[in-house]
Design brief:
Chain lengths: 248, 275
């Protein structure tokens, strides 16, 4: 057993993908990306600015729900996270349904802000813990937001990476195709191939994902866990053993 | 304007209207929602700005919704919204899938009194493909009209019949303190009528204090107000009280089946009238 939890590895990986950014925003139902953003802020001594949409405390917006999107539309948000019930090899994401739209076989919650943010936020990190042929598919059943757009469409943003419970894929914007960047400790390239429903590029040798450093783990389990508990009490309790927050 | 009975304040919410409701962090009027279900409201065109959780799920499960226009419905950490999921799979409600900023923009168009608002993104998505009411034009102000133009999506204004919101307090003139939940003001500006439930009545005029006034929705926009203490329960009201997580977990469990949902309605919606 490695001395860290899978969620801690993923938060660390995502914090490194965030890199040098001024403003990172995190949407609904994204505890691991939220942990990563808070970790990046803790490592950067207060920068980047972090906006957790569901948070009262880690959210500086004062002009209603639209302000985040107005901010993004202007290019004032550098990093955002999106997921999908399905994600395909061209970076298309499906947050709506599988099957006929009026009578679907599967229904997901909905597109949230993806059909805008995916286009205008420069670094969108795709995140899906369940890495399977059910989630990573050849072609999504409904395009909530496409991975790329024709040249005449205003699109300063898009995906830069896809992080799963098994590996990290980078995204080649010009070719609209993923490439395997690293495989998490305890996982293999063969396993990634077996469980991925779309074709992707891979170098001859694929490195192992760098595990979180001790300092990083300390920050995650201390500062970050306490901050996270406000918005994700169940996650914080389950992963970090932090008590349930009193104020939503 | 201030009604002693919640049901009287809710009278303008009649069958078949377009009803706008806010997202969870803005304070969701759950006491009012239960009252509407007890009254048996039907065929609503429910617009959740821009998402919903328990409120939409309850209304859908109770058979009150014909059309749902929103960007997402889920119970957050507790997973999928069970009655919403069941209704969409059965084709029992008409879904107008949107994306959050499109709804915000469409309400802003209504509050400005203009017919539409443009928004970046959306192009090439199936969200757009299933919204024949949304249009695409070429940006008429594009600097370089060659190279295929600059397509941009136009969203028609959303003008709800009624916006139903919950806020911390109102005064006797109908001024409502919404604090920084500014989309509640946008909803009220866009809607023909706005109905507000509040935690309490504030003595004096909220507009007299400049600090409070900045967070006030003026009574001018407000049709009716009723006091509903703890009115977001079992959801939370930010800065006031937290969501009742054990109760919500119980809901998620019960609402997984039609029978369980009926039990929930009986125990927590219909029974509360008698209490």
């Amino acid at each position: 057993m490695p001395p860290f939890r899978p969620e801690e590895l993923l938060a660390d990986v995502i914090a490194r993908l965030i890199g040098d950014a001024r403003h990172v925003a995190v949407g609904n139902a994204s505890p691991i990306p939220a942990a990563a953003a808070l970790l990046a802020r803790a490592l950067g001594n207060g920068r980047p600015y972090v906006s957790l949409l569901q948070s009262r405390k880690h959210n500086f917006f004062t002009d209603g729900g639209r302000e985040l999107f107005d901010c993004a539309g202007q290019g004032r948000i550098d990093v955002f996270f999106l997921s999908g019930g399905e994600i395909d090899g061209e970076g298309n994401i499906n947050l709506v349904s599988i099957g006929d739209h009026e009578r679907p076989k599967v229904r997901f919650p909905g597109s949230f802000g993806s059909a805008h943010l995916y286009y205008v936020v420069p670094k969108v990190i795709l995140f899906r813990t369940e890495h399977s042929r059910r989630t990573l598919v050849p072609r999504v059943g409904f395009v909530s937001a496409p991975g790329g757009s024709p040249d005449n469409v205003y699109r300063p943003g898009g995906p830069i990476a896809l992080v799963t419970n098994r590996c990290v894929f980078g995204f080649d914007k010009a070719r609209r195709r993923f490439r395997l960047d690293s495989v998490h400790p305890g996982h293999t390239v063969e396993e990634v191939v077996e469980h991925t429903g779309f074709a992707f590029d891979r170098p001859d040798t694929v490195r192992e994902t760098i595990p979180p450093a001790d300092d990083t783990l300390r920050l995650l389990r201390g500062t970050v866990a306490a901050e996270l508990a406000e918005v994700y009490p169940q996650f914080a309790a389950g992963v970090f053993g932090i008590g349930t927050a009193r104020f939503a | 304007m201030i009604h002693a009975r919640l049901d009287d304040a809710l009278a303008p919410i009649t069958d078949g209207i377009m009803l706008a409701v806010p997202r969870e962090v803005a304070g969701v009027p759950m006491e009012a929602t239960r009252a509407l279900i007890r009254r048996g409201v039907q065929r609503l065109h429910l617009v959740a700005l821009p998402t919903s959780s328990l409120q939409a799920d309850l209304l859908i499960g109770a058979g009150a919704v014909a059309t749902l226009e929103t960007s997402a419905v889920s119970l957050g950490e507790l997973g999928a919204a069970p009655r919403f999921t069941a209704a969409t799979l059965a084709g029992a409600i008409r879904m107008l899938d949107a994306t959050c900023p499109a709804l915000h923009a469409a309400f802003q168009a209504a509050e400005k009194g203009v017919p539409f608002m443009p928004l970046r993104g959306i192009l090439g998505s199936d969200v757009l493909a299933y919204r024949p009411d949304w249009r695409v034009i070429d940006n008429p102000f594009a600097k370089d009209a060659s190279a295929g133009g600059d397509p941009i999506v136009l969203l028609p204004a959303i003008k709800p019949d009624v916006a139903l919101i919950h806020a911390p307090m109102a005064d006797r003139s109908g001024n409502v303190w919404i604090g920084r939940q500014r989309e509640l003001a946008t909803m009220a500006h866009a809607a023909h009528k706005t109905i507000v439930t509040v935690e309490k009545i504030h003595d004096g005029n909220l507009l007299d204090d400049p600090v409070l006034a900045a967070g006030v929705l003026p009574g001018f926009y407000v049709e009716s107000v009723a006091v509903a203490p703890n009115g977001c329960w079992p959801l939370g009201l930010p800065d006031h009280y937290a969501a009742d997580l054990p109760h919500l977990a119980e809901y998620a469990k019960l609402a997984a089946t039609p029978e369980g949902f009926a039990t929930y309605l009986e125990q927590h919606v219909h029974a509360r009238k008698a209490a």
